[in-house]
Amino acid sequence: EKGGYDHFMLKEIYEQPSVIKDTYRGRLHANKGIIQMAGVEDNLEKFTNARRILIVACGTSWHAGLVAEYIIEEFARISVEVEYASEFRYRNPIINSDDVVIAISQSGETADTLAAIKLAKEKGAFVFGVCNVVGSSISRETHAGAYTHAGPEIGVASTKAFTTQITVLTMIALRLAKAKGTMSNSDYQRYLLELELIPEKVEEALLSNDVAKTIAGIYKGAPNCLYLGRGYNFPVALEGALKLKEISYIHAEGYPAAEMKHGPIALIDEHMPVVVIAPKQNHYDKVVSNIQEIKARSGKIIAVVTKGDTQVRALADHVIEVPDTSEALTPLLTTIPLQLLSYHIAVMRECNVDQPRNLAKSVTVE
Ligand code: M6R
């Protein structure tokens, strides 16, 4: 049932090229310049007239929501707010009838997310679900939605759900950009073609497995780890840190790289591994100077870079390469080596990778 892999998590990491394809199949027609998702088409005006989009989710799904915030605001120029469902539901939030709420949940059963949806509906908002489990409570409770088609995710640590959620949300952003005329035709077309190439690029990113394993062997005993990223890759830093803490029990923190100097830099010494997500587009020069600041304090740098990178390679202790793509799509690739790194560290620490202590696959209690 694990398809020859030692753990479900590893199997699910390796499924990503094919499930991302399943997610966009029948929806993305790059050569015709079309994105078609029934749940969006049927409610297109609600989206295009939305004064803002509120995203509610928990855990990894919340991280996918943060990536979507950057993408939707950039592409469709609609204001987006992302909230932990647990905070949203208990703070008497302001919800208007011209707000669109997007709830993201792999299981479709997360209690806090479900409660946030009910609250948003009571206040008159249109609620759209992005779920993986077909027929789940959240998919039934929402007005419309789009499934991720990732197939069953068994490992408690979410992997393929995350990348397929980002795929769905990117398609929504592109569809809205087209409807609102907020993106040039050439950019729109370029993004569609790039999105179609993502599965083969994820396949290539998976070739980082051996490097990730070597790096895991070096840092498996670290008590702490920092993850830094900027822009579209700031949420990837959060996700990388969550993956490491939940399966390896190493304390890890994700930060926007520029926040380093506002506190966390005090933690840096020769024992602190710092994972820096540094693809060539995203504020590259700024990330390079963040790396220099860490090196000046003897921190150890593990950098995720674009294939062929030389500048970061010269500074970092270790580099992991991913293929080049359009800036907004980089999270789909930079996430892959971070999943592999956490996986190998957890295996080396003899942790229960698929069922980490204290965790359940779906959190149906608040
Ligand atoms: O099923 P959901 O997407 O609603 O679950 C949300 C979180 O419980 C989930 O992402 C959790 O954080 C994962 N264990 C992360 O790997």
UniProtKB/TrEMBL annotation:
<keyword id="KW-0032">Aminotransferase</keyword>
<feature type="domain" description="SIS">
    <location>
        <begin position="215"/>
        <end position="356"/>
    </location>
</feature>
<dbReference type="GO" id="GO:0097367">
    <property type="term" value="F:carbohydrate derivative binding"/>
</dbReference>
<protein>
    <recommendedName>
        <fullName>Glutamine--fructose-6-phosphate aminotransferase [isomerizing]</fullName>
        <ecNumber>2.6.1.16</ecNumber>
    </recommendedName>
</protein>
<feature type="active site" description="For Fru-6P isomerization activity">
    <location>
        <position position="361"/>
    </location>
</feature>
<dbReference type="GO" id="GO:0006002">
    <property type="term" value="P:fructose 6-phosphate metabolic process"/>
</dbReference>
<feature type="domain" description="SIS">
    <location>
        <begin position="43"/>
        <end position="182"/>
    </location>
</feature>
<dbReference type="GO" id="GO:0005975">
    <property type="term" value="P:carbohydrate metabolic process"/>
</dbReference>
<dbReference type="GO" id="GO:0006047">
    <property type="term" value="P:UDP-N-acetylglucosamine metabolic process"/>
</dbReference>
<comment type="subunit">
    <text>Homodimer.</text>
</comment>
<keyword id="KW-0315">Glutamine amidotransferase</keyword>
<dbReference type="GO" id="GO:0006487">
    <property type="term" value="P:protein N-linked glycosylation"/>
</dbReference>
<keyword id="KW-0963">Cytoplasm</keyword>
<keyword id="KW-0677">Repeat</keyword>
<dbReference type="GO" id="GO:0004360">
    <property type="term" value="F:glutamine-fructose-6-phosphate transaminase (isomerizing) activity"/>
</dbReference>
<keyword id="KW-0808">Transferase</keyword>
<dbReference type="GO" id="GO:0005829">
    <property type="term" value="C:cytosol"/>
</dbReference>
<comment type="function">
    <text>Catalyzes the first step in hexosamine metabolism, converting fructose-6P into glucosamine-6P using glutamine as a nitrogen source.</text>
</comment>
